[in-house]
Amino acid sequence: SDPGLVERAAAAKAALGDRVFVLGHHYQRDEVIQFADVTGDSFKLAREAAARPDAEFIVFCGVHFMAESADILTSETQRVVLPDLAAGCSMADMAVLEQVEQCWDLLSDLGIADSVVPVTYMNSSADIKGFVGRNGGVVCTSSNAKRALDWAYAQGEKVLFLPDQHLGRNTAVLEMGYSLDDCVLYDPHKPNGGLTDQQLRDAKMILWRGHCSVHGRFTLENVLAMREQVPGVNILVHPECRHEVVTEADYVGSTEYIIKKLEAAEPGSAWAVGTELNLVRRLAAAHPDKQVMFLEKTVCYCSTMNRIDLPHLVWALEELVAGRVPNQITVDPDTAHHARVALDQMLALP
Ligand code: 13P
Ligand code: SF4
Prior knowledge:
CATH superfamily of the largest domain: NadA-like
Protein name: Quinolinate synthase
Number of helices: 15
Oligomer: single chain
InterPro entries: NadA, NadA_sf, Quinolinate_synth_A_type3
Bound molecules: 1,3-dihydroxyacetonephosphate, iron/sulfur cluster
GO molecular function: transferase activity
Shape: globular
Number of strands: 13
Distance between the termini: 42 Å
Strand content: 15-25%
Order of helices and strands: HEHEHEHEHEHEHEHEHEHEHEHEHEHH
Family: Belongs to the quinolinate synthase family. Type 3 subfamily.
Radius of gyration: 21 Å
CATH class of the largest domain: Alpha Beta
Largest sheet: 5 strands, parallel
Helix content: 40-55%
CATH architecture of the largest domain: 3-Layer(aba) Sandwich
Organism: Catellatospora aurea
């Protein structure tokens, strides 16, 4: 990266000292990650944000929903900054509050809303987390989805899982023993979600029709081709991948899990990894004694994660040095209160 920008970022960070804390998600660019005080998956970063009450500014190198969660979990005086406001998440955008309320009204009309516990993936807007908190549910991440669902099924008979159909289906079927027939897919763009009343009544798991535009692109064919090309290869994928990909893989887990799995792997072993490219590249560089490959060459970066680049980070830090707070992310107090209930419920999971 541009040496001038590297120097400017370092100088601005030094000038701010302990007043600033920089969080970096694992999918961020190397040029940004080098300035992160801590790196992590979305669960670890939410906890790290909550654990820094002394930092006046949290600069979140990640996407919008993560910065919102950080604002909810930090104190009123702390300010959360997202270096580029265009860093959203296509999956989070697939569940809009009005659509979810419409779905809930439908479940109420059918007389089953009382038996449904809403669970939302961290990758959702604060509005959706607020809805879930208001209705007795919980937030989950890819590292605690099973624990969150165990909790939810202890509260009610059914789950409405938002917004990632794949994480919901993979966890219910592969980790909790539900069948594919226990799951139905609710499409917010179709009348009645594209389902019959009976299907909604019978379902144990109502999956929202959302997916990750990066992980959703890995296919079963990619896995089979990799096994043919590299005999003995270990296939390691994120649970946001499609069900048939996850079923055929050897190991499945969050980004933190993927990192730990490769750290523990035998020297000389071969790994094909199905997750975001910035992370896979860093892992390949970190483990020259192992063969770390990308599961599919045409799947690329998360374009919105990649919006955060060194120029945006330098700009944000220099603004803070100048006494201005750029791109502050704030959640309105009522939404924040209810979202916090659902996030605290997650943080309290056993
Ligand atoms: P985790 O960080 O929870 O593994 O989620 C991956 C992701 O897609 C983040 O946007
Ligand atoms: Fe959203 Fe997928 Fe990008 Fe994560 S990787 S921010 S889920 S689009």
